[in-house]
Amino acid sequence: MRRLLPATVEAAPELTDEDLTTAYAFPPSGTWVRANFVTTLDGAIRGGDGVSGSISNDADQRVFRIARRTADVVLVCAGTVRTEDYRPSKRPLAIVTATLDLPSTLRLFAESTEEHVTPIALTTQEAAATADESLRARVEVVPCGSGHVDLSRVVAVLADRGLRRIQCEGGPHLLGSLLRAGLLDEMLQTIVPRLRGGGPADHLVDVPGGLDPMIRLTPSQVLEDDGTLFLRAQVVRA
Ligand SMILES: NC(=O)c1ccc[n+]([C@@H]2O[C@H](COP(=O)([O-])OP(=O)(O)OC[C@H]3O[C@@H](n4cnc5c(N)ncnc54)[C@H](OP(=O)(O)O)[C@@H]3O)[C@@H](O)[C@H]2O)c1
Fold first, then answer.
1. What CATH number should be reported for the domain whose range is 74-163?
2. Whose CA is nearest to atom 17 of ligand 1?
3. Each residue of 75-116: pLDDT tens digit?
4. Which CATH superfamily is domain 28-72+170-238 in?
5. Which of 36, 64, 80 best tests ligand 1's pocket when mutated (most atoms within 8 Å of CB)?
6. 174-213 in b/e burial notation, b at 16+ Cβ within 10 A?
């Protein structure tokens, strides 16, 4: 056991953005799927207003931005795109959705200009067959499985396009599905020193019945900023 706080050695220097870019680099080769979440001390993933911004802070936003920049693609579920009202991005965005419920009124589309990348919607064959022209004009619809979205297919589709550094931004059901499918390589977790309370739906990993066996992780990095902890941990493969 070692003490991080209070620091027993001379305080480590402040990390620059360049240091953080190095600290959050993906492995140099191979497909790598990592998730980035912010939680309170009790594991809540959203504040009372239903979004993660209200439990986040400036240090978390800084790490979120820098870690995101090191990725080839942001993988997110449609629920989070809708709830968090994602903005259009110059970085590829891959959206997991069983329903293709991606209305044009979402800021992701309403604020999109030519400089933004068209998002990819990864869905079922059945939903893809119902996609009309107007939806196809705002997202690239890619079928990944019949009856349900096959996440191993999702990862393969992205990797085939050279998008091998995959940063998953949630939400909890998608994270649970990736874990259950054995597809997650790493967790980045910001732990904000607050308690929020709430029911199971407010928590980080949504897997009905729990993960059995539990998944073990090996922390490779712990950073700290004014009491907020930044954990980087790799999933241990059996
Ligand atoms: N603290 C954080 O870092 C963080 C990060 C992300 C989200 N959140 C919060 O978490 C809360 C819940 O988020 P959420 O509803 O987006 O989470 P979610 O439960 O992961 O996703 C729900 C929706 O995403 C799609 N989806 C997820 N997993 C899927 C799968 N395996 N196959 C097919 N579709 C899948 C479905 O969309 P369709 O209905 O379109 O089929 C589903 O309705 C929100 O309050 C959000 O703000 C927090």
1. 3.40.430.10
2. 171
3. 999 999 999 999 999 999 999 999 999 999 999 999 999 999
4. Dihydrofolate Reductase, subunit A (3.40.430.10)
5. 80
6. bbbbbbeeebbbbbbbbbbebebebeeebbbbbeeeeeee
Q: Which sequence spans correspond to the domains of the chain?
A: 28-72+170-238, 74-163
pLDDT at 91: 94
The Å distance, Cα 5 to ligand 1 centre, comes to: 34
Residues written for the chain: 238
Q: Whose CA is nearest to atom 3 of ligand 1?
A: 37
> Of 178, 162, 187, which Cα lies nearest the Cα of 35?
187
